Amino acid sequence: MVNGRAKGASFEREVASMLLDELGIKFVREIEQYRQKELGDLRPVECDNWPFVIECKRYAAGKQAKDEWWEQACTAACNFNLLPCLIYKFDRAPVRCVIPIAAFEKMCEGTGGYDWKWKVELDFATFCMVTRELLCDPDMNDHATL
């Protein structure tokens, strides 16, 4: 029998390693998530303008992210005034990332005020490209604008 908590922790470490490789930003697991609800799974070390709260999910089978996973990411993001990010993987499938359309609006200096229910799903490499763009935005230092 597979230990779900161990599988989730292993995936969180895998995602942290992938983010370090792609973005050069070190992440640590948010250990307090087991004691306090509504926290993300990973947090950056020494990156003051990181735009997302990351929620990681690793499951054996499925076709797409579950709505409750996205809701969990959104709830945690609200607590920190950041954008939600869901990173998930099913067995024998690539890592997928879900972020709100508002992240693209921020990149394009739009003013549409999209609700987080409007989201996009990306492969990991594209998510990292979007994140690089957001990190280069001088306004990202002011999270209140998210």
Defining traits:
146 residues, two-stranded antiparallel sheet, Trna Endonuclease, Chain: A, domain 1, four-stranded mixed beta sheet
Helix and strand arrangement:
Blueprint lengths: L3 H20 L3 E3 L12 E3 L7 E8 L7 H14 L2 E8 L5 E5 H7 L11 E5 H13 L10
Parallel strand pairs: 3-4
Antiparallel strand pairs: 1-2, 4-5, 5-6
Q: What fraction strand? A: 15-25%
**Which H/E pattern describes the elements?**
HEEEHEEHEH
> Which quaternary structure do these chains form?
single chain
The helix tally amounts to 4
Question: Helix content range of the residues, please?
Answer: 25-40%
Number of domains: 1
Describe this protein's structure.
The mean pLDDT is about 85. This protein has a single domain (about 5-145), classed as Trna Endonuclease, Chain: A, domain 1 (3-Layer(aba) Sandwich), CATH 3.40.1350.10. It has helices at about 5-25, 65-80, 100-105, 125-135, and strands at about 25-30, 40-45, 50-60, 85-90, 95-100, 120-125. The protein is globular. The termini are far apart. The protein is of the alpha+beta class and about 150 residues long.
